[in-house]
Amino acid sequence: MPTTTLKRTTTLTVHPDLLANAKALKINLSAIFAKALVQEVKKLEQKKWQDENRAAICAYNESVEEDGLFSDHFRVF
Predict the structure, then answer these.
(1) Is the pTM of this model over 0.85?
(2) pLDDT tens per residue, range 44-56
């Protein structure tokens, strides 16, 4: 999450009953939204990284299967 304290006002659409319940429970909507957004951004960034690097990861795994790990000859167990 960004370390700056600057925030930007935005508009969200929420079901009225859900909003009323959240207000009655004194839920900090901004904090909940920010936390959920951080989690979603992190999840999508991880998926993007995996998709972008899938070919390299597969190639590395194939080379390990064929040739073993580069440090195999140093192992004593």
Answers:
(1) no
(2) 999 999 999 999 9
